[in-house]
Specification:
The chain has helices at 35-38, 61-74, 93-97, 99-108, 136-141, and strands at 4-8, 15-19, 42-43, 53-54, 116-119, 131-134. The protein is of the alpha+beta class. It has one domain (4-141). 12% of the residues are buried.
């Protein structure tokens, strides 16, 4: 289980608890205490969820990437589950529970529509320390079956 740390909300200064796995590199530089300070949530206007808070990301490319990542690692009925979840590849607890956390990390670490999520070490799971956004060419070269040039 990941330990919790307390930091100050970027917007209002209120104390915010975050999982230690969110602390990347020199540390987490942005944290928000609630939906209003985060600014990524909005109330739905119509439908069965009218009036509820939503992250507004459903249907976006980033949301499909997040959902696909979770399916590959957690859904045994996914056709290629054996290549991810079947090998023990996991999604970190923070990302599994929160699209907003995944989106926040992605936007802070170079996400763009022409990039793909990549795990630096293919034997480790999806987490902030092991993931990055790369071009399709870089991603295709970082596979278990990629032929690596022989070192002199």
């Amino acid at each position: 289980m990941n330990a919790m740390v307390t930091i100050a909300c970027t917007q209002c200064g209120a104390p915010v608890e975050r999982y230690k796995c969110q602390m990347v590199g020199k540390g987490l530089t942005r944290a928000f205490c609630d939906m209003k300070c985060l600014g990524l949530f909005r109330r739905t206007q119509t439908g069965p969820a009218a009036g509820r808070w939503t992250h507004g990301g459903k249907g976006t490319r980033l949301y499909r990437i997040w959902r696909g990542m979770k399916n590959r690692c957690n859904n045994p009925r996914f056709p290629e589950y054996y290549l991810w979840g079947g090998r023990g590849i996991k999604v970190c607890e923070l990302w599994i529970r929160s699209f907003v956390s995944f989106r926040r990390w992605s936007l802070a670490h170079g996400y763009a529509d022409d990039l793909q999520i990549d795990r630096r070490n293919n034997n480790k799971g999806y987490n902030p320390q092991n993931c990055r956004w790369v071009t399709p060419k870089v991603n295709s070269n970082n596979k278990r079956n990629s032929k690596r040039p022989a070192l002199p």
